[in-house]
Amino acid sequence: MTIPIYTIRLVHHRNSVFSKNEVIYDNKQTAIGLLRAELDGVTQEHAAVILLDGGNRITGLQIVGIGGLTTVSCGVSEVIRAALLGNASGLIFAHTHPSGPTAPTPSKPDRKFHARLVSAAQLFGICLVDDLILDGDGRVFSYETEALARQILREQITAGTRPQGHREGGGGPARYPLHHVQG
């Protein structure tokens, strides 16, 4: 009986129009620009991972899922695999909502996926820099931006400087992480 020996390799597919040396963490628009350049005009949902080195420079982009009009099948394992094979110390996950009638907001499955992605990234020592949802009209939902907004609101409530119109116990749309991503 023979036992197969496997080799896993990351294969360079093609170059993007963006420079690999662009710093992304301080400029979310760079990530969004790269994603738009690669995914603009798609009519199906796509899931992608932007890989970052220790200096937050882009080292690659990988499409990890292509779906239908309203769903994309992408598991947390595909995202983490892309980061590990790309030797990334950080990543930005993104998926598209090309046919959404309203601003991109995460669905319940998106939120569950995000929570699992956060846990998996921590387990492997990979920094999840952001999780983005892009629609076909140029709008973007960012988990990082949402988390910062929630933190500022908590601090204002704690300091007694709650913004006018804010209600205790939440209110407003339920937000936080990814649309119809399965896995």
Description:
- This protein is of the alpha/beta class and 183 residues long.
- It has a single domain, classed as 3-Layer(aba) Sandwich (Cytidine Deaminase, domain 2).
- Helix content is 30%, strand content 22%.
- It has helices at 28-39, 76-85, 108-123, 143-159, and strands spanning 46-52, 58-66, 72-73, 90-97, 127-135, 140-142, 181-182.
- The chain starts with 27 loop residues before the first helix and ends with a strand.
What attributes does this structure have?
alpha/beta, globular, disordered C terminus
Task: Tell me the CATH superfamily.
Answer: Cytidine Deaminase, domain 2
Helix content: 25-40%
What class, by secondary structure content? alpha/beta
- Cα end-to-end separation: 35 Å
Q: What is the third-level CATH name, the topology? A: Cytidine Deaminase, domain 2
Overall pLDDT metric: 78
Largest sheet geometry: 5 strands, mixed
> Any guess at the CATH architecture?
3-Layer(aba) Sandwich
Q: Total number of β-strand segments?
A: 7
Strand content bin: 15-25%
